[in-house]
């Protein structure tokens, strides 16, 4: 985007210089205003038909808003984010995790072996979780993110370590005796962009695995598997650039889990039926400045 601004500016300077050499009348100097200068900030808001977190369906009709700012003057580029999601209707669990306020930091690492890499830390708060306490009232999660352009598609890998959840839960209260903390979760996927009527149609899909991420919470004695293949997913999005700052992105997706996969047996904590074959969609509006 910046190159599109710089090139016409350089051409204008060259023409102006040539005009002086040719002895033509000087042209009034008009300051160039870079209306689309990227200062590193993005605000966004959006609607989701289903609120899915790591494949798990917590409710429907969710609204999300957030702000992100990228700091370039540091040793490594760092992005600070704040995001809030509220389940407006169809919450699966009453008075529990129906909203999520998250604060995040993400640092881009030097590329290696053709891979782009970054580290993240996200801290979640649940303001509406007043009774059930599915999770601790807040929790932190470390993430490692890798991507590589394979020409035919972009390979993506995300690894998460949550140090706030008790390992496998084991039906014990977090922080209790013999209750080792720390759980793992990862996703592996492919993404490719296609040109459709001048817009980039982004298609993606992948698979997720949970290692002790889901288990029996202290209030749920009905079981629930803790480790194994979590779910697979397919997504399609169509970012539409309304102007140089504003992008509208509608999307659709699918979450599935074959028999014996974790999401096929969830949310068994409450004796509810397993969740799988979920079609979902939404729209996101982002503005950069």
What can you tell me about this protein's structure?
With 289 residues, the protein is mainly β. It has two domains: 1-37, no CATH class; 39-288, monomeric porin ompg (Porin, Beta Barrel), CATH 2.40.160. The protein is built from one helix and 13 strands; from the N terminus they run αβββββββββββββ. It has one helix spanning 2-21, and strands at residues 41-53, 56-71, 78-89, 99-112, 115-125, 138-149, 154-166, 181-196, 199-211, 228-237, 240-241, 246-256, 278-288. The chain has a twelve-stranded antiparallel β-barrel. A hairpin with a 6-residue loop joins strand 2 (56-71) and strand 3 (78-89). The longest helix is centred in the first third of the chain and has 20 residues, at 2-21. The chain is globular and about 50 Å long. The two termini are 13 Å apart.
Question: Residue share in helices?
Answer: under 10%
| Quaternary organisation of the protein chains | single chain
| CATH class bucket of the largest domain | Mainly Beta
Distance between the termini: 13 Å
């Amino acid at each position: 985007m910046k190159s599109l601004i710089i090139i016409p500016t350089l051409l204008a300077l060259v023409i102006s210089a040539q005009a002086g050499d040719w002895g033509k009348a000087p042209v009034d100097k008009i300051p160039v205003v870079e209306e689309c200068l990227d200062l590193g900030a993005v605000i966004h808001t959006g609607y989701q038909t289903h609120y899915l977190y790591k494949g798990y369906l917590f409710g429907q009709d969710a609204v999300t808003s957030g702000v992100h700012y990228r700091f370039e003057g540091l040793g490594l580029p760092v992005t600070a984010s704040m995001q809030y999601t509220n389940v407006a209707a169809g919450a699966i669990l009453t008075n529990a995790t129906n909203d999520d306020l998250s604060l995040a930091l993400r640092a881009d690492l030097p590329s290696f072996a053709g891979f782009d890499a970054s580290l993240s830390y996200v801290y979640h708060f649940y303001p509406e979780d007043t009774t059930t306490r599915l999770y601790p009232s807040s929790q932190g999660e470390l993430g490692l993110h890798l991507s590589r352009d394979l020409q035919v598609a972009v390979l993506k890998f995300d690894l998460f370590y949550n140090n706030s959840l008790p390992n496998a839960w084991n039906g014990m209260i977090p922080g209790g005796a013999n209750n080792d903390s720390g759980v793992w979760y990862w996703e592996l996927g492919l993404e490719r962009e296609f040109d459709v009527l001048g817009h980039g149609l982004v298609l993606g899909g992948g698979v997720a695995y949970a290692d002790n991420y889901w288990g029996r919470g202290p209030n749920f004695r009905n079981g629930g598997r803790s480790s194994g293949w979590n779910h697979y997913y397919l997504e399609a999005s169509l970012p539409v650039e309304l102007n140089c700052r504003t992008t509208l992105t509608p999307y659709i997706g699918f979450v599935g889990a074959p028999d014996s996969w974790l999401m096929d047996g969830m949310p068994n904590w409450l004796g509810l039926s397993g969740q799988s074959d979920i079609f979902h969609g939404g729209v996101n509006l982002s503005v950069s400045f």
